[in-house]
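I'll show one example:
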Amino acid sequence: MRWFSSYRLHGHSLAPSLPQHSLIISMRWPSRWRLAPGSTVVVEHPKLGQLIKRLHRIDANGRLWLRGEHPDGLSSEQMGPVSRHCVKGRVVFSVAAAPSPHQLHHGA
């Protein structure tokens, strides 16, 4: 099993800090290792598939509640909690995607 994996972020749920198409490097994160709220994690969600989200909170039963940053993204309540065993990695490095030429605004 590899310790590091790379991903290309699809969607805008972590924008503005990580815009769509950003490069993400994650490190395998065994379930016994500590995770803190605010950590960005790669999760294999039982209903939604692979997600890259921020850890919002850990409830009294040890379940993880995730969230995005963009207001149009899924809420924590819509995703529901996941087990620590669903965490495939913790994001340890990212490179934000450059804006597309359509998004660049030139001064007058």
Notes: The longest strand covers residues 49-58. The CA atoms of residues 97 and 103 lie 12 Å apart. The chain has one helix and six strands. Confidence is low (pLDDT under 50) at residues 104-108.
